[in-house]
Amino acid sequence: MKKDGKLYFEIDGKPCYAEEGQSIIDAATENGVFIPSLCHMEGVKPAGSCRICNVKVDGRNMTACTTPVEDGMIVENDIPELTELRKAIVETLFVSGNHHCPTCEKSGNCELQALAYRFQMLVPRFPYKFPEKGVNPRSDQIYHDRNRCILCKRCIRTVTKDGKHVFAYHGRGGEDLHVAIDEELASRLTDEEALEAMENCPVGAILKKERGFEVPIGERKYDHQPIGSEIEN
Amino acid sequence: MKGKISSIINKYNQDRGRLLDMLLDIQNEFSCIPHEAVGVLAEELDISEVNVEETVSFYHFFTREPAGKYAVYLNNSPVSFIYGRAEVAETFEKEVGVSFNEVTEDGLIGLWETADIGMNDQEPAAIINDTLFTELTRAKVKKIVRAMKEGKEIKEIAEDVAEAMYNRDGLRTMVKNNLHTKATVLFSEVELGKALKKAVGLSPEEIVEEIKDSNLRGRGGAGFPTGLKWDFCRRSKGERVFLICNADEGEPGTFKDRVIMTQLPEQLFESMAIAAHALEAQEGFVYLRYEYSYMKDYLEGVLQKMRDDNLLGKNILGKEGFDFDIRIQLGAGSYVCGAESALIESMEGKRGEPRNRPPFPVQRGYQDYPTVVNNVETLAKVAPIMIRGAEWFKSIGTKESAGTKLLSISGDCQEPGVYEMEWGMTIREMLEMVGAPDTQAVIVGGPSGVCIDPTHFGRSVAFEDLATGGSMILVGEQRDLLEEFILPFTNFFIEESCGSCTPCRDLTVILRDKLLKILNGNGSQKDIDELYEWGQMGKDANRCGLGQTSANPILTTIENFRNLYEERVQTDEDYVSTFDFEKAVADSCEAVGRVPNIPSH
User: What is the CATH number of domain A7-78?
Assistant: First the structure.
């Protein structure tokens, strides 16, 4: 099955090739197949936490970001059952936070919003909770808005140059868990680091201070093409 | 304060991997994790403060404010209410003068709630500091509170209120064992050291083969073949290999490991030594749930005696190079840590979040070395199998389920307790055995298992039918199953979710709210259907056993007790939120002579 030292596998019948040890999601991207995800990010250890990249491998659900490709693997991705599940997960995120797109700095660049459009979500099937979440504006560089946080763990898997975590989970469970920010460390971030933290966040929970709405409507990331179209061929 | 904290950190060689132990010591010392301690820990371990806090905030028994010189943790499991938990709680509040989740002004007594502490057979029960109080009554609570106000030692108070104390090698507790043996594998009078002597004469491969032959399967609930797990671990070939005994028995309604550890700790540790020989592991751990910390000193004593007898330590039983020792790692209050990879994370001093698999712990476990995690009951069966052989073990039980199983039976019955029985017993036989004639439902395997109605009572307890880790919660006809069991169990899963996976974290809350809508009389038929449909989503989508089963209390009661839901929903047509469009416009269409033009779905 192997070809030029690469592993052969299929996604929805499409022949694909992967490096040894490569995750299904990264290999899919290289082969022009979009597997949606909100927690996956290059350069950090996969978390498998948002569960949107669930694919079927031999009929079993596996997260594409944490599962390495094996030679001859048969992967199902774009099938109604999974699309429905992914859409439902996006909907739970919408009702479990407070996502008011029109006033959000990240609107148009937000991956949650973009996935909702891609899945043609109109109104979530679940009732809105409108929970009280709070904001933390106390650090000099970062404005932290928990209302928009989807707890994807991207920020908490990144570290500063000296290996310190600025963000971490706090608490546990469905009603208590949130991301906490180390205000002191956050204040010491350089402009570049703060900007990177903002860009890593798939939603508008981490914003760099003194910067807002820089990209006009019409030029934002997902204004013209749905998320994933940059990958698909 | 800084000095004290520093000396605790130094006690564990400033090893970040021992953060859990440091926090346990700090909580013990200050009856909370003071803000200053977080700073000192962060500085000396060279991590950020939010990293310390992420661990602190994960565990139930770490508090940020002083929990009280006497910290009373009263169990709130559904079964405790059957035995009068409500009036016990009320008496505590009245006598102490504060409500739950509060501490008296002088800081003397704090009242706290805690989920199932493994005492369902002797409720109501509470943990006060490191001492267990069981079968509480109004009168006992009054006595306890009075003694606490007088400043008496907690152990002394226990002596005063107990009707009897269980005594064994330095363990003195009012916790009863309530053990009944209907079949004997575990409790078959195994002579100490005999099994290990035999094992030492065998090669590791021979031991693994024997265990494979015996068909021993994991007793924690998942039922994975033990010999196969050992085999996988042996094939991983690490520089170091670890063996962990999972004593984080947290499934509501289970308390069997409590009984094994108080009654047969030597057999358990000897079995671990045999497993270590088979795995060529040098280090072993018992991950003991915090709720069982009352037996820690006792278990340490047993370990020391076994070291003295050369059953543990260096060159065990004179076999050159056979070195193995066991350390007890205390947990700090988290259900999900019973999942093997979460347990490993916790052992490393982190939040107990289950890991992504692959890699499996047998490939990369504790400190990334090959690690076998086995349940207490699974391990304790290794010694008898060694002595009497795989064939003997297989002759007990059913074809697919070899040997015996310990059941923890509690709820509405005359004889709650731990029962060792052969696999294959039917639920009906079990109910007769414990005296439970009017049973409405049996929650098999605890909330993560299935809730069955009497039409299932002919089924048998075995891997091939009703597979279970052994929790059997009996619900009598007089109980409100949904309100008194299903709702609190769903809340339990919400609180115990580590929060990583979206569906487990958020969807379970949505399900609970929908259940409440129905329980409050505001639901419709459609709500029942949606509840069932939505509940299915987490089954395949979540990473670990908790997330995959957190909807089980709801799902299995909709399957087996749908009438209980239907009784509570509104059937009035006006109450149904969907409507038949065609019917709704029929009159107006007729009036204007048009045919309804409705796109089909």
Answer: 3.10.20.740
Cβ <8 Å between A170 and B496: no
Split at pLDDT 50, 70, 90, the class of B601 is: very low
Measured between beta carbons, the chain B residues lying within 8 angstroms of A129 are 509-510, 513
**Closest to A138 in 3D by CA, of A181, A169, A168, A97:** A181
Percent pLDDT > 70 in chain B is 99
Kindly tell me if the per-residue pLDDT of B600 is higher than 80: no
Residue B396 sits at φ, ψ, to 5 deg, of -105, 145
CB contact under 8 A, B542 and A51: yes
Q: What is the pLDDT of residue B599?
A: 57
Range of the domain at B44: 2-56
Chain B touched by A151 (CB under 8 Å)? yes
Across the interface, whether the CB atoms of B499 and A47 are under 8 A apart is answered no
Q: For A78-99, what is each residue's pLDDT tens digit?
A: 999 999 999 999 999 999 999 9
CA distance to B194, B210, B215, B271, per residue, from B190 (Å)? 8, 18, 20, 11
The predicted structure's pLDDT at residue B493: 97
CB of A51 within 8 Å of a chain B CB? The answer is: yes
Residue with tokens 């898997």: A157
Say which amino acid occupies B7.
S
Residue pairs spanning A and B at CB distance below 8 A: 129
CATH architecture, range A85-208: 2-Layer Sandwich (3.30)
Residue A94, min C-alpha distance to chain B (Å)? 10
Q: Is residue B453 part of a domain?
A: yes
